Amino acid sequence: MQYKFFLIIIFNFFITLVLNAKDIMVITVADAITPASQLYISNGIKEATEKNCQALIIKLDTPGGLLDATRQIVNNFFEAKIPIIVYVAPSGARAGSAGVFITLAADIAVMANGTNIGAAHPVGLDGSSDTTVIGQKIVNDAAAFIRSIAEKRNRNVQWAEEAVKKSVSITETEALNNNIIDFICNDIDSVLKAIDGFQLEKNGKILKIDSKNTRLIYRDKNFKESILSVLSNPNLSYILILIGIWGIIFEFKSPGSIYPGAIGAISLLIASYSLQMLPINYVGLALIITAIILFILEIFIQSYALLTIGGIICFALGSLMLIDSPEGIVKISTELIIFATITTALLFGILIWFGIKAQKSKKAPIAEEMTSLSGVAISDFINGKGKVHVNGEIWIAFSTDDIKNNDEIVVEKVKGLQLVVRKKI
Fold first, then answer.
1. Please, which residues bridge with residue 410 across strands?
2. Are strands 84-88 and 108-111 parallel, antiparallel or unpaired?
3. How far apart are CA 100 and CA 164, in angstroms?
4. I need a labelling partner for 175 at 20 to 30 A (CA). Which of 128, 246, 386, 409 fits?
5. Residue 77 and residue 108 in contact, taking contact as beta carbons nearer than 8 Å
6. In the chain, what percentage of residues exceed pLDDT 70?
7. Contact 39, 8 (CB under 8 A)
8. DSSP state of 146
């Protein structure tokens, strides 16, 4: 009986292995390429391999993204033990910029009707081409990278280089005719029919895809990947920084409020984690930190808006420089920066106005008003000189009496900015 039991277990194991080998996993990337995208793709490859799937299909629609994340994705493709199929879809989708590298690096590249691929030239933050020496180095490095990918996958090397250097873009039909992709398919079922029987070499082994009657496993982002995808949005990071700045400023303005400071601190911590996944410019970050310092100083030092003006300038420049993406795709919305700068300026304008109004409404004490007022010594009088607290203010005072700390005193007269006092009897 035990012998039969073990045979059944072994038989079921092999049946499961064979059936799983027919599975094909599908993941969807429909956004800019960021470290969060790279993690999602990497985990998809790992999970498809562990489940013994025979291939992974990546449904792609991207305007581009970060080159570092793209390099890691390409490395994941080359190291994968199973075939990677990139499918640019649906109709109207594109494989722009970083998407060109990813599509060319696939074992099998497929595009849907009405899609396009190309425009992989690195651009500046303002969307213009960078013609500086550093810019040319970036372009040449990207060109060498895409040439190596095209050569490894036996695709059109010349067009791949032109996509980087000349920013050319072509349709799916042109891509098929120019040996950029392998098939044109309108849906996943068409993809499965097209790749059935396709043979390729992978890690020294010849693999043949059998997609007849295969089962598709659609993998969505897990909780961690979803959170990272949200946090990798530069606009969200910027909003968190803004909430953090305002929260801390309100806490300094009204000490003990607790909630503004706590919310501000939490927002800044989340923003710092988010910024780790983004290509930040440290000069821009330093300018924003300087702005925060100037804003806080304005609360304690009445500079009549000079510190605030300096803070607003640092804040605006730092915001524009904060995200340093050569592709110009991963960036903070200009409209959001303008809104944040104007709102912050108005906020501090109101605070300054109330501060100046309070100062003007307060009458400066005169000698007649100060005479005979009572107060408290806040230090021992040494050689007839000490400090007193009178009318809500601290004064330097002189007296012929022996006055100790906390003794009550009476103002006899005012000499400039100093008082003559006596010990209250």
1. 374, 422
2. parallel
3. 9
4. 128
5. no
6. 86
7. no
8. H
Q: Provide the pairing of β-strand 199-202 with 418-423.
A: unpaired
CA–CA separation, 329 vs 37, rounded Å? 14
Region class of 118: left (phi > 0), else alpha (psi between -120 and 50), else beta: left
Give counts: helices (H), strands (E), the chain: 15, 16
Q: How far apart are CA 176 and CA 178, in angstroms?
A: 5
Q: Which is it for the CA torsion 317, 319, 323, 326, positive or negative?
A: negative
Residue that is written with structure tokens 């400090």 in the block: 387
pLDDT tens digits, one per residue of 94-115: 999 899 999 999 999 999 999 9
Residue 215 CB burial class (10 angstroms; 0-12, 13-18, ≥19): exposed
For the chain, what is the largest distance between any 2 Cα atoms, rounded to a whole number of angstroms?
Answer: 113
DSSP at 423: E
| Partners of residue 60 on adjacent β-strands | 29, 88
Rounded Cα gap, residues 236 and 323, in angstroms:
12
φ and ψ at residue 406, rounded to 5 degrees? 80, 0
Give 326's DSSP letter: T
d(CA 10, CA 405): 92
Angle between helices 282-300 and 334-361 (to 10 degrees): 20
Number of Cβ within 10 Å of residue 180's Cβ equals 25
Which residues are bridge partners to 390 per DSSP? 375, 393
Strand order across the beta sheet in which 169-171 lies: 94-96, 116-118, 169-171
Highest-scoring range by mean pLDDT, 7-21, 65-79, 238-252, 326-340: 65-79
Cβ density class 155-171: b for 16+ within 10 Å, e for less: bbbebbbbbbeebbbbb
CA distance linking residue 100 with residue 62, whole number of Å = 9
Q: Evaluate the omega torsion of the peptide bond into residue 260 and state whether it is cis, within 30 degrees of 0.
A: no
pTM over 0.85: no
Distance from C-alpha of 163 to C-alpha of 157, rounded to nearest angstrom: 10
